[in-house]
């Protein structure tokens, strides 16, 4: 059955929304809706205009034989400011401070809508066009990492703290974390999980000294894999000098007189579209 | 600016798609698009019809003061059969069998589109209307669990194998797994992560004897939390008698002459809408 324009637009919007960063051909839609390609082309222009106008994300068309249409999830400046401010407010509560000044985060970073928004911000500020994989380390960053992977249309790798019998041969390294490098830990990744020469983006939930992310960099080196950049949700202001240089964070955490001061990164916000 | 019907439908389809299992009021759309509520009501009817016709999921309207419209992600029978058959085929490869007959799964269960489809199947076969949380145990099931949480609009809890300094006071239990109950392990959940009297659905990637899921049941009992049901991606045929009774699985795994035979659960498929 041939569809009316309004119905085609609704269906196309839904299908694009379900398939971020995938190229869908005009032919695919033309066959699905028994329409001419020129009709689909005009539909896509309408979708693009309405997504722009309603701030629902970017829609781009790719010309040529392998061409089609691609939906790119985007967060806009106002939405991001509102979201990060509310996250900072919730994180500032005194009840979240645990012995050793650890921050209780799991109600937020296991919330699917919070981590999806975080993924959208990451996708809006990082250039992932050359990335082959996202890489995180177990456990707390995994929900955010898989949501980001969905948005960027990339596979995820999860580094384990120990060799696992269900993951086959692995490369393991040791790394140091904690104050004065006091803690030595191991991390492990299956050999066949990643191709030599790949490019990756590293994700984690929290960074203090940067020891864990430095370890992930070192592990990637053993796989001859290039790290494009690293992104974390929260980075502490102290120590100012981290073990890694090229990274982005969404929220900074400063400890003042036993209180936590959390602020959205102004660099991140300045990069976003209004 | 007032929108044309076709543009409103595209925007509504996109917004519903981004907010599974959330009730969005007609007022929200009426204000956003400067339209009358009656116009929005007729738009929603069109969306419902086109989603049904194109098998894009269910759209239901909820009457009354707290009413509105809700999009419920759904997988249909044909799509599910195709997906599970292709998953079984990929899982049957001999190269996936590791020493100790463990199955190499991580390229599939860390793939955001695979785990999202799995989440859609879970949401199509399990009644989650009374659930307050989804619960999984680290690590391999987390990507699938957070995707399911997004689809069901529920928060996720992740049980850890050990007490964590960044998660506050916890309840820990021991549980037994492995052949002849040969392995004793611990699992841990922060006390303040879940409210007494809640109802949960347990998720995991793989079940052999059911020891881990039995452990999760026992842990939930310590929190005075009721388990509605348990769902896993793969369940082995042997041992036939598991440590838990009330569970669902997507794929069964049978070992025959050193080969793995993987089959989609016919019970699951029979429950799906055509």
UniProtKB/TrEMBL annotation, chains A, B:
One of its GO terms (biological process) is negative regulation of purine nucleobase metabolic process. Keywords: DNA-binding, Transcription, Transcription regulation. Residues 112-249 form the Phosphoribosyltransferase domain. The keyword Transcription regulation applies. It comes from the Bacteria. GO terms for molecular function: DNA binding. Residues 4-73 form the Bacterial purine repressor N-terminal domain. Belongs to the purine/pyrimidine phosphoribosyltransferase family. PurR subfamily. Homodimer. This is Pur operon repressor PurR.
